[in-house]
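in:
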């Protein structure tokens, strides 16, 4: 029998088969993972030169994961197909980081994060339903509807138009959502071909670096030096948070029921709204209501 959510990125970090789950530690870890993910996005948002900051952050995250891989079982990409997919995942990650930096420049953290993460879930749900044979149910349709409605509220409330997706001001967030969906689907396919998760993540991070380097191609040495001098501790914190968020998420999936796990992980959308307020961004009530609606839709799509 086909496993629930198999074929979608909701199942891409498939836990080991077990009959019992730790319902005390697991949910707390997943909420912490969601908090860390929103936090490192907030740290990136708070910097002036986001391209150089993200380059240094992902470089650090890749190196941390590389050390974990080399001191553990070593690289485990057992066949050419898994390796190719891992590399392509890195290409999509690189494009995601490029569009992320532009999205954070163009909009508030709460609004851009909601569009990127909520939109990615809708894209994966559509692809999985149409091309991968994934069954969908009423709550999935309701979740997709809430995500779309939330995006309309975020943009329509500010412009006075009811049906406004904010294509122009949020184009980078929408593009980022597509790339997020793409690399998650690739992650799943790589795992289907027996790739080990840390090896996969490490390859993807390292492959994404040339794209980030291209993003800071103007005066790269000066920009990197400036970021290290002024935000060195923030780079270290962000790189550690990004890596920890991923690894904690993996462990949380192993000890928590999958549906609950993904739902808790999507709470990062709510955390992003809170961080947006802490950053004292000019976030409107429409953006708060819209982002919250997107978050609720994401939870329904996870069930």
């Amino acid at each position: 029998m086909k496993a629930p959510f198999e074929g979608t990125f909701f199942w891409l970090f498939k836990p080991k088969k077990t009959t019992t789950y730790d319902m005390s530690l697991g949910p707390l870890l997943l909420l912490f993972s969601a908090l860390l993910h929103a936090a490192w996005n907030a740290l990136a948002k708070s910097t002036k030169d986001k391209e150089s900051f993200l380059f240094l952050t992902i470089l650090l995250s890749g190196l941390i994961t590389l050390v974990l891989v080399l001191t553990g079982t070593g690289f485990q990409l057992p066949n050419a197909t898994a390796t190719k997919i891992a590399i392509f995942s890195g290409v999509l990650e690189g494009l995601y980081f490029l569009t992320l930096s532009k999205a954070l420049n163009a909009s508030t953290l709460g609004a851009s994060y909601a569009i990127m993460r909520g939109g990615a879930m809708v894209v994966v749900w559509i692809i999985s339903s149409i091309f991968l044979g994934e069954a969908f149910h009423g709550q999935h349709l309701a979740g997709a509807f809430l995500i779309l409605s939330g995006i309309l509220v975020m943009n329509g409330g500010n412009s006075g138009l009811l049906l406004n997706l904010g294509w122009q001001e949020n184009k980078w967030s929408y593009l980022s959502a597509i790339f997020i969906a793409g690399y998650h689907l690739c992650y799943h396919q790589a795992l289907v071909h027996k790739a080990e998760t840390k090896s996969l993540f490490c390859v993807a991070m390292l492959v994404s670096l040339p794209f980030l380097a291209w993003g800071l191609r103007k005066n790269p040495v000066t920009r990197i030096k400036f970021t290290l001098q002024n935000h060195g501790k923030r780079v270290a914190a962000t790189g550690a948070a990004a890596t920890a968020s991923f690894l904690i998420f993996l462990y949380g999936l192993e000890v928590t029921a999958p549906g609950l796990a993904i739902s808790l992980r999507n709470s990062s959308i709510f955390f992003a709204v809170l961080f947006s307020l802490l950053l004292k961004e000019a976030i409107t009530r429409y953006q708060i209501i819209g982002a919250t609606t997107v978050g609720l839709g994401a939870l329904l799509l996870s069930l």
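note: The chain has eleven helices and no strands.
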